[in-house]
Amino acid sequence: MNPKEPKERKKSLLDLWRPLALFIMAYVLLTSLPMSRHKTTDLDLGPVENTSAPDLRHPAPNTAFKEASGQTVQISDLKGKPAIVRFWAPWCGVCLKESKPFARMAGQLPESVAAVVVAVDYSSQEEVFRSLGQSHSYKLWFDPSGEAMQHWGVDALPSSFLLDASGVVRRKIIGGTDWLNSSVPADLERLTELNQKN
Q1: Gap between the Cα atoms of 12 and 89, Å rounded
Q2: How many CB atoms lie within 10 A of CB 36?
Q3: Cα separations in angstroms, 83 against 23, 30, 147
Q4: Given pLDDT bands bounded at 50, 70 and 90, which one contains residue 134?
Q5: In the predicted model, is pLDDT for residue 106 greater than 90?
Q6: What are the residue ranges of helices labelled H in the chain?
């Protein structure tokens, strides 16, 4: 019997199991990331319930945000326009990947619709501007304390909310989406038409 046989057999077993173990670890890691989830709830134009939770058919919390100038703004400042409000962070890979498609989609929206990106969990406004650039086709608001993010119930980034002209949440999109091929512009147009009829 050759004394090298057991070592070679052990080595060949390790060579077989190592790729499988790496695949399993990668799979577990990728499926457990919150940013890899994509959940959307359908546009629902049912009756409105008056609660503070940012659920469908509920008014969005009218929490305070900051503009780059330091001025305080709220959802009620959107002056009766349907809106998309997107919570975003500069460290979020999905957020960064979708920044340009979201900006293109927002730039194509009519003036009767507001698009807002809320920057959360950032170290400085400069960090946000480095990630997004200086000019935007949407309003850029900041949530320096994370209070608004908490009131809106945001636990995964990116998170987006479609609001009707009364500030009622009509659709949520949790995670990434294909902004250039989504139904969001059509949904916002529908909300605009409903607003004009009322």
Answers
A1: 46
A2: 14
A3: 42, 32, 20
A4: confident
A5: yes
A6: 5-32, 93-107, 125-132, 147-151, 184-197
43 contacts 36 by C-beta, under 8 angstroms: no
CB 131 within 8 A of CB 109: no
Distance CA 87, CA 16 (A): 44
pLDDT higher than threshold 70 for residue 166? yes
Tokens read off for 101: 């498609």
C-alpha to C-alpha distances, 189 to 67, 185, 192, nearest whole angstrom? 26, 6, 5
Rounded Cα–Cα distance for residues 118 and 124 (Å): 14
CA–CA separation, 51 vs 38, rounded Å? 25
State the DSSP code for 168. B
Alpha helices in 62-123 (DSSP H): 93-107
The pLDDT, as a whole number, for residue 193 is 87
Q: Give helix then strand counts, H and E, for the chain.
A: 5, 8
Q: Which has the higher per-residue pLDDT, 90 or 22?
A: 90
Residue 65: beta bridge partners? 73
AA identity, residue 98: E
